[in-house]
Amino acid sequence: MNGTAELTKWIFIYICLFQCVYAQRILEKPKIYFLNAGDTVENNIPGLKTYCHTAMSKYLTHIWRTMTMHLNTKSDSYVLYDGKTPEEIHQKHNENQRSWSLSLFDTGKHKQLKINPFENICIGVYIDSSNESEYIMSLTETRINVWRLTMMIIGIIIFWFAQILSRNSLFYYACGIIFGVTLSIIILIYMAGKLIPRGRVMYLMFAASMSLYLAQVLWENTQLIIVQYREWVMWYILVTSLISFVICYRFGPVTNKRTKQIIQWFLQFMGLAMVYNSSHFYEASFSCCVVLVLLYNFPKAVLERGKRYWQIRFPEKRKLLSKDQYRQEGIRQTRKALKQLQNYCSSPECNPWKTVLRLKDPIRFAQFMEGEPHLSEYEVDEHEEEVSKILEKDEYTDDDDDDDSY
User: Fold this and answer.
1) What's the pTM value of the predicted model, to 2 decimals?
2) 239 and 206 assigned to the same domain
3) Contact predicate 289/159, CB 8 Å
């Protein structure tokens, strides 16, 4: 009996040691994963896992680049944390564990997490249950985000045409209707948050918190609400739009110049904000805002400076003229200079008597001013003889060079 009890004790000790070793191996598995675009990680172990992305280099061609972490899971019993480093993720997780399970630092139940590709970003996934711990985390990259590109284009259009829009009646009614529908939704959310009675201070705090909670729920379930309650949503938008239109029609479009100027400034500010937030590459988007403001206020000066900088940075290569091009250019420039001389002598700025006193042949100059050629027939013949002599000399020199080469 004693031998059997001793054997049973040692078997139990070995089983405990084996479980401890197995548990240690599980704990020693890496809990931090550094993902690149296209990477995928499968998980089936409960606990906190951290997925990080290292910041990529900033280039102008990456201005509309975005990255998304996809959490593929069938369970909803998970908690997400975001931060700059794994230590920050672990700190938030520890704070949540000590805060009576209120999840004060989680980021909500999102399965698609947009991240900034130019910053160090970490996402923590915590699942407590081993039965629901299976999920797949992947990282995808979008080289040109169409939505962000469209956002920048719309921002530029709003900024550039803000003066026209602020004085347009159709734009006034459209904005009034949109503002009325949005304001009515906000009022409904606030009134729904005030339904539960509390004390004065707690009443206000609870009403505000309930309003924010309802707004978040509506925003996250917008698509589901539109699909399931399509008719109610259409009637609600139609009625609130009609009421907003009637109110705008009652007061009429804005007529005060200063009010129009304020609306223009507001639209331009909104356009610049859209341009700035259209990219995670904030240095490039801010430069776009600066260039847009300069082009709007100083178009000629900016274009001239840009053209001058471009010419200095990328100077044009000079082309050498051939002999025929050189002669043609000489004839063209000579005619141009003679025409300028005729115009100057015919203008009031020229004193004809002083000009005549300086000339050796005033009669010939007068004939030139009346349209006759500036050269006589003798001078033309003499010039042609000199040119022919130069050409013959060049041909003779070329022949001598060819003989020497043989």
Assistant:
1) 0.58
2) yes
3) no
